[in-house]
Automatic annotation (TrEMBL), chain A:
Keyword Phosphoprotein: no
UniProt cross-references to InterPro entries, sorted A to Z: Ebp2 (IPR008610)
UniProt-listed Pfam families: Ebp2
Acidic residues: compositionally biased ranges: 33-46, 84-104, 136-152, 162-180
GO annotations of cellular component type: nuclear periphery; nucleolus; preribosome, large subunit precursor
Compositionally biased spans, kind Basic and acidic residues: 12-27, 74-83, 119-135, 306-325
Residue numbers spanned by region Disordered: 1-54, 74-198, 302-329, 363-434
Source organism per UniProt: Seminavis robusta
Origin superkingdom: Eukaryota
Biased composition (Basic residues): 1-11
Biased composition (Polar residues): 186-198
Family: Belongs to the EBP2 family.
Name of the protein in question: Processing protein EBP2
Keywords: Coiled coil, Nucleus, Ribosome biogenesis
From TrEMBL, chain B:
Sequence segments annotated as region (Disordered): 1-74, 313-339
GO molecular function: rRNA binding
Organism of this sequence: Seminavis robusta
Keyword Nucleus attributed: yes
Protein name per Swiss-Prot or TrEMBL: Ribosome biogenesis protein BRX1
Compositional bias of kind Acidic residues: 22-31, 40-64, 328-339
Basic residues bias locations: 1-16
Brix domain mapped to chain residues: 82-282
Keywords: Nucleus, Ribosome biogenesis
SMART domains for this protein: Brix
PANTHER family: RIBOSOME BIOGENESIS PROTEIN BRIX (PTHR13634), RIBOSOME BIOGENESIS PROTEIN BRX1 HOMOLOG (PTHR13634:SF0)
UniProt-annotated location(s): Nucleus, Nucleolus
Length: 434, 339
């Protein structure tokens, strides 16, 4: 059905223009026959489709007149020779394009924008990368345009006359397209481009060595609605933003290095070349100090962490060791006990087992005699609480007791009755003589 | 062979009158350079002029033939003459002052001017007059308003365009976190984002940046080796500026990493273009950023919002009351059926 519609539309166009080559007419008619043979006829939707086709044809015509398919004309001319081969392909490709009305319109609009971009970029000599990618997308429509070449040829002369105006209108439109992405800019694009051109012309004859500017091809991955590049870094994500900047600058440096080599400008600074630097040595020393300080901080934190871990582990190990030791001691004692029992029984009945046992107990050091006496004594003397705890606390009487205070300052302690050296020597002497 | 000799003679003749007008010291140099030139094919002559001459003239002063009175001794070769007048307005704060100082160190072809008090005619008039006096062909003016906002004017005197930027996110070279260092006077590599080749106003700005931030070749204060990258990025409708020091890769590690590394020197700042004018400090407006909200307005908006809270609360209460009155269940006739 689609084929049929397409061919009917083509036939109508031929009638309108009246300049279709016989070749094409014949071909379309032959195609028509084939189509009729293949497809079933549904008259009513066909009429509706015809209406749609009329509208589409008009839209296409307008687009062609506005010059958005200029690029394709050149291509079409190239392909003109091999038209015979391409016709079948054309039909198939056109079918793909025609599937849905709405989609087609949208696609046309989108392609329009891209094609306008194409023309503008062709004029302003911008990067070729974009053009190539967009041309490939439009391959379908390119082939569709082959059949309309004669019309385009006619219209081309018309276009040439009005080219300048249209280009500028396209420019302004395109600025809007671009700027819609960026927000609304109020640009007087004619004057802007004129001024830019003037500035560029002043430096037109400069070799690169004079300008030293470089445009790295790596794009910035900051979130835009229509960019296809995967990573969209938020502009407020500081770390990643700076990393992106760094990468682009590094690429620029590589480009500059090669260009300098070509221009014969030395790039790398030799170690023995001394020159005044932008930041003074004092400043760099402070920077170094700060770096060292920051490193120390990091190290301190790491050290503290490791210390903590180590302490934990060492405590664990220590407690394990103690437990181990205690266990071994216990085992030892048990063994000795067993031996004692055995020894006593082996030696015969006359001996007093109890004596042996007592003796052996003594050897063991009286493990079972309760808590450590030394420990208890120390607790009593130095510890807090208990019966005598009260006596270790201050009461007003003890606090106001000034008996220990000696204004003369012979610091011999509270109850010390030791005299000074002179007095002691004197008494000693007296004792000796007496 | 004969042909070549003829060419040589012709060129020597054309060059000699110019050379004679200049100092005698450097008379030999052009002849040497011409000899070298003649060996090269004609097509590349123009392109290589700069390259060939640069090697020998890197330490010499730059020749030029502009209509303006030259500041350095010229040698008969065409050279790019740029002089930038860097100044600021009164009422400038410490941060902006330091930024300007940093820019002065980064731009060796600058002329310093004291603080400017805008006269009755406004800044533009004063700047153009002073620039004409000091024979500068570009201007960099930092205007500080309310001791809070800084606007950077950049432009070419005479017929050139001028731009007004709003500067934000300033980090000066004094910050200890920016650890790089470079030679004073080394020519920077200017790196432009690919957006600078697409958008109209950015193309114009690129030319301005090349003139102002790029050191002209052979400038007396310029040093020979390439030490620094000044990178301009376009993101979020603003221009982000970064300065990096280029560190060479270790020759031992050449196989592993052919690339060197970059260390940030500073200063770093963000420029928000406000408007571009056709003339210097005025004239027909070529570009106006409608997305730019002046900091005054943004502050006013914030204060308004704060004031809104009371009004909003009262309105909410009213609405709540209204809704309560409206939301009444209709009487169900079947309610009284069962008791």
């Amino acid at each position: 059905m689609a084929k049929k519609n397409k061919t009917s539309k083509a036939a109508k166009k031929a009638e309108k223009k009246g300049q279709r080559k016989e070749k094409e007419v014949k071909k379309t008619s032959s195609v028509l026959e084939e189509v009729e043979a293949m497809s079933s006829s549904d008259e009513e939707p066909l009429e509706q489709n015809n209406k749609n086709w009329n509208a589409k044809a008009k839209a296409l015509k307008e687009m062609i007149e506005s010059g958005s398919y200029d690029k394709l004309v050149a291509k079409g001319k190239a392909e003109k020779d091999s038209k015979d081969d391409n016709d079948d392909d054309d039909d198939e490709s056109i079918e793909e394009v025609v599937l849905d009305d709405e989609e087609d319109n949208q696609k046309n609009k989108g392609n329009n924008k891209r094609k306008r971009k194409n023309t503008k970029e062709a004029e302003t000599k911008d990067s070729d990368g974009q053009e190539h990618s967009e041309e490939s997308e439009q391959s379908d429509e390119e082939e569709m345009e082959d059949e309309e070449d004669p019309e385009e040829q006619q219209q081309k002369s018309k276009r040439d006359q009005t080219e300048e105006e249209e280009i500028e209108s396209e420019n302004s439109e395109e600025e809007e397209d671009n700027d819609d992405e960026h927000g609304v800019f109020d640009t007087n694009s004619k004057a802007l481009s004129a001024k830019t051109a003037q500035l560029q012309a002043e430096k037109g004859t400069f070799p690169w060595a004079e300008r030293f500017d470089v445009v790295p091809s790596e794009p910035l991955p900051f979130g835009k609605a229509d960019e296809d590049t995967g990573n969209k870094i938020d502009i407020h994500d500081d770390l990643n933003r700076e990393v992106a900047f760094y990468d682009v600058a590094l690429e620029a440096v590589q480009l500059a290095r090669t260009k300098c080599k070509q221009a014969g400008i030395p790039f790398a600074r030799p170690d023995d070349f001394f020159a005044e630097m932008v930041k003074t040595d004092d400043h760099m020393a402070r920077v170094k100090d700060r770096l060292i300080f920051e490193n120390k901080k990091i190290e301190a934190v790491a050290q503290r962490k490791s210390n903590k871990e180590q302490k934990l582990r060492s405590k664990e190990a220590h407690s394990n060791k103690i437990a181990e030791k205690a266990r071994r001691k216990k085992d030892n004692m048990n063994f000795v006990d067993d031996w004692a029992k055995g020894a006593a029984s082996n030696r015969g009945g006359k001996y007093n087992d109890q004596d042996d046992q007592v003796y052996l107990r003594k050897m063991q050091g009286r493990d079972n005699n309760g808590p450590n006496k030394k420990r208890m004594a120390a607790n009593k003397k130095y510890g807090f609480g208990g019966k005598r705890g009260r006596f270790k606390q201050n009461d007003p009487k003890s606090m106001n007791d000034m008996s220990g205070f000696n204004p003369k300052g012979n610091f011999g302690g509270m109850g010390s009755k030791r005299h000074g050296k002179r007095a002691r020597d004197a008494t000693r002497k007296r004792q000796k003589t007496s | 062979m004969m042909g070549k000799n003829k060419k040589k003679d012709k060129q020597v003749k054309s060059k000699r009158p110019k050379a004679e007008t200049e100092e005698t010291e450097e008379e030999d140099v052009p002849s040497q350079e011409e000899a070298m030139k003649n060996e090269e094919p004609e097509e590349e002559e123009q392109a290589d002029e700069g390259a060939v001459s640069s090697e020998e003239e890197e330490e010499e002063e730059e020749p030029e033939s502009p209509p303006v009175v030259p500041s350095f001794i010229s040698d008969g070769k065409y050279r790019n003459k740029q002089r930038c007048l860097i100044s600021c307005s009164r009422g400038i704060t410490a941060r902006f002052r330091h930024l300007l100082e940093d820019l002065r160190t980064c731009i060796p072809h600058h002329k310093k001017e004291a603080k400017l008090d805008p006269g009755p005619d406004g800044i533009g008039r004063a700047m153009t007059d002073i620039a004409a006096m000091r024979e500068c062909n570009s201007v960099l003016f930092l205007e500080c308003r309310k001791r809070q906002d800084a606007y950077l004017w950049m432009g070419k005197t005479g017929t050139g365009p001028s731009v007004k930027f709003h500067v934000s996110n300033i980090h000066t070279m004094d910050e200890l976190k920016l650890t790089g260092n470079c030679m004073r006077g080394s020519r920077p590599v200017l790196s432009f984002d690919e957006s600078f080749t697409r958008l109209g106003h950015l193309k114009l700005l690129r030319e301005l940046f090349v003139d102002i931030f790029g050191t002209p070749r052979g400038h007396p204060k310029a040093k020979p080796f390439v030490d620094r990258v000044m990178a301009f990025y376009y993101a979020d409708k603003k221009i982000w500026v970064r300065n990096y020091q280029i560190t060479e890769p270790d020759p031992q590690q050449l196989k592993q990493d052919d690339k060197g590394s970059l260390v940030e020197i500073g200063p770093r700042f963000v420029l928000n273009p406000v408007c571009i004018f056709h003339g210097s400090f005025g004239g027909q407006s070529l570009f106006r950023n409608s997305a730019f909200v002046s900091p005054n307005n943004s502050r006013a908006e914030m204060r308004k919002l704060k004031g809104q809270s009371y009004v909003a609360r009262k309105e909410a209460q009213k609405k709540h009351k209204q809704r309560q009155e409206e939301m009444v269940l209709p009487e169900d006739p079947l309610d009284s059926v069962f008791r």
